[in-house]
Amino acid sequence: MNSAKELPCIEAIVIGASAGGVEALLTILGPLREGFSLPIIVVLHLPEAGRSHLAEVFARRVSVPVLEARDKTRVEAGTLYFAGPGYHLSVEQDRSFSLSLEDRVHYSRPSIDYLFESAADAYGPALAAVLLTGANRDGARGLAQVKHRGGLTIVQDPDEAQVATMPLAALDTHQPDHILSIRGIGRLLIELERIAC
Prior knowledge:
By secondary structure, the protein is an alpha/beta fold. The chain has a single domain (12-194), classed as Rossmann fold. The chain is 29% helix and 19% strand. The chain has helices at residues 21-29, 54-59, 112-123, 140-148, 165-173, 182-194; strands at 12-17, 40-44, 66-68, 80-82, 88-91, 97-100, 127-131, 152-156, 178-180. The strands form two sheets. Strands 3-4-2-1-7-8-9 form a seven-stranded parallel beta sheet, with helices on both faces. A two-stranded antiparallel ribbon has the order 5-6. A hairpin with a 5-residue loop joins β5 (88-91) and β6. α4 (140-148) packs parallel to α5. It starts with 11 loop residues before the first strand and ends with a helix.
């Protein structure tokens, strides 16, 4: 971790992942201590059928409260949110969630780009966005938008990703602030929370 580079003051974290994402997320989020104060909002590509069990799976494995994001609910500090299947998830200017049935992006709904771009507009430079393993290009454009709005961008090292397509697409689009291993990303999130606004 390059401590010479001042870390920004972050108010929220968004994470996008696809193929291989459950294992990657458990590695990153597992070590977070109880009382971790930043909200973390996750889009993980899911099969659309039925309901998602992600919230239950992660609730058993992490120390922070875990919820499926619901329409019109406010983003609360210290909570891990998952986008449910079948809906795009966005963050409004008042920092509440919005669900929509707009067209798929990169064959995906929820789409990582959709979440990242809306959160970039809502949080600006106070946002950290993390793109992990995955098999399509979703997230690359959204990550570039986070960077454009002054936020912090973090990409999983493609050499370590279970499926490198998604991280490589992001690196094609812009130079992120950090390219890190999964464990490095976990450590960075702990560091960002330690100096949170």
